[in-house]
Amino acid sequence: MEYEIISLEEKTVAGVMARTNNSDPAMTAVIGGLWEQFFRPDVGGTITGRKSAFTLGIYTDYEGTEKDDYSAIVGCEVNEKTAVSAPLVLRKLPAGKYARFTVRGNVHTAVAGFWQQLWAMKLPRAFTCDFEEYRNSDMDHAEIFIYISLL
Fold first, then answer.
1. What is the DSSP code string of 45-105?
2. Which of 8, 58, 81, 111 falls 20 to 30 Å from 148 in CA-CA distance?
3. pLDDT, mean over the chain
4. Residues near 52 by Cβ (< 8 Å), separated by ≥ 6?
5. CA nearest neighbour of 74 among 109, 105, 36, 111
6. What is the mean pLDDT of residues 3-26?
């Protein structure tokens, strides 16, 4: 898979969060539930101070590698002074070096296929924060930038 190495500045995000891991049979339902919750008008619709129209799927707080627990967040980038209330949380995405991949196609199959290929790569991952940036809302012809933190 082709990618480019970029440096990102720290970002502030607001979203909904849950803990899971990739071997948990409920992982897909947990992350899918975050997406459903975020797009409710009384949850994601209450966020002020958005810096971007893009929705983010974030994986952070890794306990080790992709085989261990992590926090999954569905949210958006916001201004640093944004305030939120439960069930929303504010988090910082760390500045640093990331591999940026571009994925196109059906949201579900293209993203799932990407992660399967990534786990087989010998990429020097930092496991600090990885995230998906959904560039459009077309479920069948999505364009997604996926950022993987690097050492």
1. GG---BS-S-EEEEEE--SSSTTS-EEEEEEEEE-TT----TT-EEEEEPPEEEEEEEEEE
2. 81
3. 96
4. 76, 77
5. 36
6. 97
Cα separations in angstroms, 132 against 11, 81, 142: 14, 23, 12
Q: Is 61 exposed, middle or buried (0-12, 13-18, 19+ CB in 10 A)?
A: middle
The pLDDT value recorded for residue 2 is 96
Find the mean pLDDT for residues 77-93.
96
Q: What does the DSSP 8-state code read for residue 3?
A: -
Count Cβ atoms below 10 Å from residue 93 Cβ, excluding itself: 24
* End-to-end C-alpha distance for the chain, whole angstroms: 19
Task: Report CA-CA distances (Å) from 78 to 31, 50, 57, 102, 117.
Answer: 21, 4, 14, 23, 31
Strands (E), 9-54: 11-20
Contact 142, 106 (CB under 8 A): yes
Asked if 25 and 34 touch (Cβ cutoff 8 Å), the reply is no
Distance CA 73, CA 17 (A): 4
- 146 in Cβ contact with 125 (< 8 Å): no
